[in-house]
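Category: protein sequence paired with discrete backbone structure
Discipline: computational structural biology
Format: plain text, a pair of labelled lines
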Amino acid sequence: MDTTEKSLVPDGWSTPPSLSDLKQNFRDSKPYHDLYEGKRTDYLAHLNIEGSVKLKKREGFSAVQPQLIRKHAEWRYAALTEAFLSAQEIYKLHPRTHKDKLTSQQNELLLNYQWNNQLNKVMFVDELVRTAVDEGTVFVRVGWISESVEQSKLVPQHEFYPASMREQVEELERAAQFQQDDPYAFQQHVPAHIQQALQLTEQEGQPIYPVYIGDEEVVEEVLVTNQPTVEVCNSANCFVDPSCNGDLSKAEFFVYSFETSRSALKREGRYSNLDSIKVSAGSVLAAPDHTIVGDQSFEFKDSARQKFVAYEYWGYWDVDGSGVTTPIVVTWVGDTVIRMEANPYPDGAIPFVSTQYLPVRKELYGEPDGALLKDNQAIVGAVTRGAIDLLARSANAQEGMRQDALDAVNKRRYKKGENYEFNPTIGDPRAAIIQHQYPEIPNSVGLMLTLQNNEAESITGVKPYSGGMSGDALGKTATGVRGVLDAATKRETGILRRFAKIMMDIGKKIVAMNGEFLSDEEVIRITDEDFVAIRREELRGNYDIEVAIATAEEDNAKAEELAFMLQTMGNTLPMEMSQIVLADIARLRKMPTLAKRIEDYKPQPDPTAEMAKQMEMQKLQLENQKLQMEIAQIQTIAQLNQAKAQETMVKAGNTQSDTDLKNLDFVEQQAGVKHARDIAQNKAQAEGNMALEILKADLAKDNQVS
């Protein structure tokens, strides 16, 4: 490891990778990469009729080559791109836990806002689809760009004194209450001098208020750009770990070569040792492993803009000798390392995602339609050239004449279009003068072309109307047409699902970056009038991302089904349900504004009908009051009757008690019980009186003795 590499080794990396180790990984991936690169070059050659596929011109023979593969690809481009560009909101976020439910909506709003406003989605989707359709494989790099500029501005200066006015104290009290209710909003929106005054108030134990003393010019950095980036990479410059077994997420390293300059590297601010770069060693022409895109003849001469090739290594390495790998990124130009650090992205993964147009089992690279149509294109070209040569090599519109048919004078008249005299010995002059015509093209030519076009259409599922745009292009019956469209739609839906997967992977990476790199508060526009503030700390969480895509045929079928449902049940459905169906139909017809208006529509009430409803309500209320009064009256009568019944029962009980008492007295008198009770009572009274008299006598004796 040279001194340049040592100077870039981060702290704590006791066993950092050497440049030779990284280059060895790069060289080990080249055979696997070159194998696909040869196939990719062949796919593009057949698509564009160039290179070894292009026929050499032969004098007297046609070199026409119909672009059958290109024709099918052109029909495929629009169908696939429209599925992603027709909807304004393609990302749907579903929270994995209950605590993530509140933040999933903000993440969804922000992600769709970035997709529609910050990323050039039209150019990106076009390049994504065209690269996949043409080459069979597409690699996308997901990153983040932050740019700031220094600006000078006047900042108010304040001195702090004890509050002397009631208004100042009240302002501090309101600010303190605001800080308690919403600390985040307080930090973001309350002026800094008021915040400092509250801190001093807490420290001093008395109200401290700021007093303006003047302005001071300061220079500060203002964030100009802070957003995610997506880039469709040139597959020829992507070198992947061959042992990933067709799954990029399992790759241990990914090397990406790109053209750059000193000026571009300095602007990014993450590279070092730029003055040590030897441009001659890293120049574009001196990098055989890098495929140049664009004009190779143009080159800047100044050192700031002169192009050279940099290699970026993303992977995993045991940097501390613990036996556990750490995500790293290393960039070099020639033999100069200009960047070495831990992977800065929050997910710690390689910032590249990929997808295949037609996947090959256990392979990272896929195939385009051109891999299936090469033979058909060659046959169509050969048959077409044969038919053209048949016509081109004939002497069409030329005339032949017997030498003795006309003399010199009459031949001149014939050429001028004048009346002439012919030699009578030759017989009929039409037999002596022959006019050549194109020969008839054999029916086998058209039959062969039709067979090849039909086979190509059955292979790809694309109907480019090679047989004309007649009503029988897809079949002669509605059932046949539906069967053909269903089969083609299934094939197209399968391709779209693979594209949707790469869009989901891109969305996951952007969501993770938003929670890490976004500014403290981001204000996004939802509609022309509505704005929402997105807070960075509220973006973190676990979410399942769904990409909402649909083909035009699928949306049209759903819209027709909903329209039929509304037509058959419209009279019985309530207004709210009809609005839901109408809004879905408008959304499927790509009219989001109308869908929003339908959802928000509330019919204005008729004043007469509203008055009638109020009067009817008052009538019902009066009837209800009358009914309540009648019920209360009935309850009162029932309670009165119940009280009378209880009184009657009490009287009956008293009468029964008197009767029982008299009966008991009669029985006791009859049996002598009452007489015996009276005798016992009198006896007890007499005994008590006697005891009392004795007690009095004893007390009197005691008094006399004393």
Q: What stands out?
A: Residues 17 and 243 are 20 Å apart (CA to CA).
